[in-house]
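INFO batch 0412 | record 1 of 1 | parsing
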Amino acid sequence: MVSLRVVPAAFVALTVLVLGASAGAQSAPSSSAQAFGVLVVLPDGTTASAAAVSAPPSGSASDGGWSYGDGAVVTGSTSTSARTTAGDSRSSAGSRASVRSVSLFGGDVTVDAVSVKGSARASGTGAGGDLSSSSVSNLVVLGKAVQAGRNARVPLGDWGYAITLEQAVVENNGARLGYRGFVTGLHVVLTAGHGGLPAGTEIRVGYAEAAASAPKAKPPPKPIPPPEPQPDPDPGPKPEPQPGPQPGPQPGPKPNNANKPKPDDGPAKEPFLPSTPQAPPTVRTPPPDVEPKLTKAGYVFPIYGPATTTDSFGAPRTTTWHHGVDIFARLGAPVLAVADGTLFNVGWNDVGGNRLWVRDGAGNEFYYAHLSAYSSLARDGAEVKAGDVIGFVGTSGDAVGTPPHLHFEIHPRELLWMGYDGAIDPYPYLIAWLRLDDLEFGSWSPGPGPAPKAGVVLLQAEDISSLAGLGDDTLASYLVVPTLLGEGRQEPVIVGAEPGFGA
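INFO prediction complete | emitting tokens
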């Protein structure tokens, strides 16, 4: 293999400076919180919200009354708050939202009050939180009273569904101990146009999120054992034996040792057995009746069957930002290749669980995480067609305890030089693919200054997913990336190297 590596000194200095500062910041406890009274998300990504607040810094918001559309959403008084604290050894966060007199679609759905609360705390010895103090009072759907339960799904005629007290928790037990919990009082999803709002619209009433993390405390050093007593270097002369009988037991007849087993005849020592390796992931045969509709450019929505998602790209996390979106669906729903391309990095990591990447013919890369199982097509180097079943929706990795979902990311070819952070918002593309439309992958913004040209970043003859041939004397040995809670890679990020393992 012939490879060329050119890294300007100025770029190395800047990268080390930025990552070094980030790593230092991650050594201290941190926390975040956010809340809002109402959030409306249209299929084109347009949003409207009431009394939104986030921390740090701690703050609060209120609204005497709020409405959206022609009577689609009407609420009474709304109040929210978010607070965070972080000290030298621990951190905490809390958020709450209270919404009264909620009416959706002219009274099709009404609620007397929604109250949600979230808290989180972390120290070097543990992390935890609480979402239990959340409630939905007197929910009435299409004229019938409904008992709100945790993550309970309520049908809304033939035009949508609602989820009550929707909540999930993400915990981290690596180099940092962390907890992040979120709860939504009432989450409405339109599967067909209704009340003047189009299909695909989502309405969240009452949302609270709290997260905290802290570096794990180092174990106490093992005690140094006391030195063994040393023999006296000069014990002096031994006493002379005295004639005559000696006190104490007298020796008996010498035993016959003819049948005594030799040391070599003893039981054989058990051979050393290495620890049992992790069981391989489940592999399932793709169902034969999956026939998704492709766009003109050959792209397809990544989940077959009913699914719901919101635009959470870039949302704050305890130690990073959301590099993709979460698509919620039933456990085991088929996961599809979004384009004709090649699979790579099929396997496990602690954050993404069962995960894989798809690279399309144009060089764009797509990341899938938290799969419950792989299909028999999923193997490194496999060529797949758009719509092929490559896995199944699950909660593996750090998604344990959350509703089943697929974490999905888009990394355009033009941004691969940025490593894992070269991601764009997948939400508008997902909505377009649902409508059998196409969007160009050129709407990204590289930030200040032009993107480095080929030849001034790390280059290799192999593709971007390979690090073959790089030794400890390379740039990797100088870069330190902090341990992340929720998503992100934990090894050094090399410009031109494989994108990281997000969750």
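INFO post-check: Residues 241 and 247 are 12 Å apart (CA to CA).
INFO record closed
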